[in-house]
Amino acid sequence: MTNALVPGAAARSGGGAPGRLAGRAGADGRLAGRAGADGCDPSLRLAVVGNPAGRRVRFFQDAVAAAGLPPARVVPWLDVLRGGARFTAGETVRLDSPGEDPDVDRLLRGVEDTTRVEGTGLWYARFTSAVSELAAGVRAAGAVLVDDPGELAVQFDKRLGHGVLRRAAVPVPASPTSGHDAPPVRGWDDVVRLMADAGTRRVFVKLAHGSSASGVLAVETAPAGRVQATTSVERGPGGALFNSLRVRRYRTEREVASIVDALAPDGLHVERWLPKASSGGRVADLRVVVVDGRATHAVVRTSRSPMTNLHLGGARGDLEAARGAVAAAGGRWEDVLGVAERAAAAFPGTRCLGVDLLPSSDWRRVAVGEVNAFGDLLPGLTGLPGGGAEGLDTYAAQVAALLRPTAPTPTAAPNATTSTTSTTNTERNATTAVTGTPRTTTALRPRPPGTSTT
Question: Which residue, 379, 380, 389, 373, is CA-closest to 337?
Fold first, then answer.
């Protein structure tokens, strides 16, 4: 890597000690035994780009240890951003989230106070530039990058990701900002106009490059000019915006407009607010993890607010109750999972995706809210029955996939220059029924082991 975002830091790397999940994951030798039975190479050398002190790296190292492999070499995101990352021939390199490190966040967003909401546009530009240079360094060293960097760039732009899903006939909420050629949202006046053009009074306004519900506003309008927005954004002195763990409501158009206008320079995505299902008297949606084209893990997320993120007061719900609700509505759980697999298949160069599913209020239909490149942080969650990862957490499932002798075949990564096709009948529907759609158990084609996606 040559063009560092911040100059002058020497390279650092190192393995991580197995942590608290290693004993449980390795108790029955499941991963190591399966690897040997499949005839794969137990000498696989792994490197993980992440934050060394973070939970994600620790959980991944636990899974690596449980598989009987030597620890993955850790390449800190700080080294990547400062131009000091190095790779060696034969390594398999996995990218993990740059989150959970204030110093990394400061470098990416250009803000001193990491609780601020603003700066996601700069974060995206610096992150995608760093990933592109990292991929070039991996390729030049003769190593292999697990996931396609072009697809990662699309996944971290909600407008582009929505457009890719729509063109793939995956059910998504209607959006006037979908795809690379959608008009920019310059502020609140544009949001009002887009809502009027669409004939809707309820939308989600999201930061195009946001995550963890940062900057998300659930906006409702009513006759006589009444406006309300539910959000975790806290307005500070002088108009500064901060992320808060408390969801709050702003009940005047002036307040809502000021927040939207402040966020607009970073890029905004607007989509129709679909009425969600409920479980136990709380709003409910689903996070489904798809590994190598197959839905391996699922969790119900419930909340008393429109945002179901666990850090905002959301809670894990009853998965069996959700399956029962789908069946009671005349649907099939396999078809719910099939929608998540179809969404992941739109990104064939990505080995693991977290897919957010939005069941309709009667559990008869389901849409994809968005896909999450790093949507696998679900501690303690083991695999779905029949999903190929029974008894494994999301990280162990990914290590098992890396040990398999075949992997998905990538195609050209969707990007900001991909043309948009005309809207199909399927795309016009915000959701798809969860009956009559056969689930594909192998969404992607095999490729020879060791083939790079870069």
Answer: 389
Structure tokens at 272: 């129709």
Question: In this structure, are residues 259 and 250 in contact, taking their beta carbons and an 8 Å threshold?
Answer: yes
| Residue 371, both tokens | 């896909």
CA 189 to CA 54: how far, in whole Å? 41
Tell me the pLDDT tens digit for each residue of 332-376: 999 999 999 999 999 999 999 999 999 999 999 999 999 999 999
Q: Is the pLDDT of residue 410 over 60?
A: no
Query: What single string gives the DSSP state of each residue in 73-95?
Result: EEEEHHHHHTT-----TT-EEEE
Q: What are phi and psi of 120, to 5 degrees?
A: -70, -25
Q: Are strands 241-250 and 226-235 parallel, antiparallel or unpaired?
A: antiparallel
Distance between CA atoms of residues 386 and 37, nearest Å: 19
β 46-50/294-303 pair status: unpaired
Long-range contacts of 107-115, Cβ-Cβ distance < 8 Å, separation of 24 or more:
107/5, 107/6, 107/78, 107/81, 107/82, 108/81, 113/242, 115/242, 115/243
- Determine contact, residues 204/270, Cβ cutoff 8 Å: yes
Distances (CA, A) of 283 to 59, 97, 287, 307, 361: 29, 28, 14, 9, 9
Question: pLDDT grade, residue 269 (50/70/90)?
Answer: very high
Spatial separation of the C-alpha atoms in residues 377 and 289, rounded to whole Å = 10
- pLDDT at position 211 is 86
Nearest 5°: CA angle at 48, between 18 and 418? 145
Describe the strand order of the beta sheet including 46-50 as a list of residue ranges: 73-76, 46-50, 92-95, 144-145
Beta carbons within 10 angstroms of residue 258's beta carbon? 17
Tokens of 177: 């900002």
**Of 322, 326, 282, which Cα lies nearest the Cα of 300?**
322
Cα angle for residues 207, 156, 403 (degrees, 5° grid): 150
Confidence of residue 310 (pLDDT cuts 50, 70, 90): low
| Angstrom distances, CA of residue 335 to CA of 275, 366, 437 | 20, 10, 6
Cβ atoms 298, 189 nearer than 8 A: no
